[in-house]
Amino acid sequence: MQVQQGTVHIEQHGIDGFPVNHGIRFCIAATRQYTTAHHGVQSQESPLSKPKVLHSREVARTRLFRVEEMGLRFSNGVERTYERLVGFNTGHAAVMVLPLLDDQRFVMIEEYAAGTEDYQLSLPKGLVEPGESLLEGANRELMEEAGYGAHKLELLTELSLSPNYMSHRMQVVVARDLYEMRLEGDEPEPLGVHVFHFDQLPELVQRPDFTEARAMVALYMARDLLRSPQGDVQSTI
Amino acid sequence: MQVQQGTVHIEQHGIDGFPVNHGIRFCIAATRQYTTAHHGVQSQESPLSKPKVLHSREVARTRLFRVEEMGLRFSNGVERTYERLVGFNTGHAAVMVLPLLDDQRFVMIEEYAAGTEDYQLSLPKGLVEPGESLLEGANRELMEEAGYGAHKLELLTELSLSPNYMSHRMQVVVARDLYEMRLEGDEPEPLGVHVFHFDQLPELVQRPDFTEARAMVALYMARDLLRSPQGDVQSTI
After folding, report:
1. Kind and range of the H or E element at A95?
2. pLDDT digits 0-9 by tens, A144-181
3. Residue B218 and residue B155: Cα distance in Å, rounded?
4. Which residue of B has its CA nearest to A65?
5. ipTM greater than 0.90, yes or no?
């Protein structure tokens, strides 16, 4: 569904720097691909020569899931057959949104999770639709699931689900300068919307109805950035 | 493979309390199911009446994956058909291990990830084998993948993968009082073993070869517990 109201300010991250902007900037994801130094204090030899793909074939396909079998030969000559989930969820980019009301409070949604068969807290998320940019898709999901739009959307990080078994990756976006705005989505029932304070994070991650690792990472990462000494300096600019 | 050396001290967590022990205790998981209070600062009505399962059937099964289709009727009468991944990885309990060398340093492994097709940093993990307890399985995986055994193993938390689409859950165990001990596992090549300091966590989560959300949560959660004021008090007992 198209955005009907509100101006979206999308941060453009370049290689050389980040736009001048008030408040904390979330720029981890933009630096990811340029971070190559290894910081291990102590290392053994790393097996960095990638195995050769001997064959790959689809072994199952359903409406949402596709399973691939892959024959690999490792650099030491050992051959193994792997199965992995590919193209989970139709192949569109997946995005998760962390909506910040201010530097202390964030919004979570509560919805029925068919996988774990209970109501779970999470962050708004979904698939970017054809013709949408990543941040436009993030803003639409935010409006559909939480009833907020955001004037500022910034990429925080990219997370994998289970890198050994799944190709799936999810982009995590921080949304700020929120305004009330609800779009009708494809949810079967209205989602619960809850506001928490970052001070509640240690209790929150203990709750039986909050178990999703990717949403937890988004919260820990944003909290650390907001509370880092560097962040404090930036926020006073 | 059986443990050949070293004494495993397994913490028994009860409902009423935790064993007296030196150092920080990781006891989040044990309190999870008893935490029911909601801490939302602001809440809308929560949709807590679970949908009714109208039907469910298996739509695909491979060596590792099983996909189920489920018809649901929500409390407002809306009906939807869902697909979810169930019994991922043969249904054995999955366990991830965070090995601590001390209160500052932890061990990570580096292995080829067939899902993302690159070498990735992660924590030792695997499936608990028949006849093993969760913590025994955690110790065996630690020996096979990282070359350490642990005298102390404690449950940290339980994480889900993608609760909307997958039933999969993983237990996260903290391993301490480590000793060198390698068991032969089923890895096709030796894994890289790296030691990091919790001060490196902000850089670590930016690395393109560390993307797994569940391992990140384990690190953030343990670091917060080790550095919490309460932790400082406990560690001086």
Report:
1. strand A94-99
2. 999 999 999 999 999 999 999 999 999 999 999 999 99
3. 11
4. B67
5. no
Is any Cβ of chain B less than 8 angstroms from the Cβ of A112?
yes
Question: Which residue has 């990091």 as its token pair?
Answer: B196
**Distance between CA A142 and CA A193 in Å, rounded?**
11
Q: Is B7 buried (19+), middle (13-18) or exposed (0-12) by CB count in 10 A? A: exposed
Dist. CA A164–CA A83, nearest whole Å:
9
Neighbours of B18 (CB within 10 A): 15
Counting Cα atoms < 13 Å in the Cβ hemisphere of B112 gives 20
Q: Which of residues 177-236 of B touch A (CB under 8 A)?
A: 188-197, 200, 202-208, 211-214, 216-217, 220-221, 224, 228
In 3D space, the residue among A170, A108, A23, A64 whose CA is nearest the CA of residue B43 turns out to be A108
Distance (Å, rounded) from C-alpha B149 to C-alpha B128? 16
Give exposure, A31-56, as e/b (b: 16+ Cβ within 10 Å). ebeebeeeebeeeeebbeeebeeeee
Count of other CB atoms within 10 angstroms of residue B66: 20
E strands, B125-228, in order: 125-127, 148-160, 169-180, 192-197
Percentage of chain B with pLDDT > 90?
70
Q: Nearest-CA neighbor of B51 among A178, A187, A235?
A: A187
Which pLDDT tens digit goes with each residue over B125-167?
Answer: 999 999 999 999 999 999 999 999 999 999 999 999 999 999 9
B174-196 pLDDT, tens digit per residue, is 999 999 999 998 899 999 999 99
**Interior angle at CA A76, CA A75 and CA A79, nearest 5:** 85
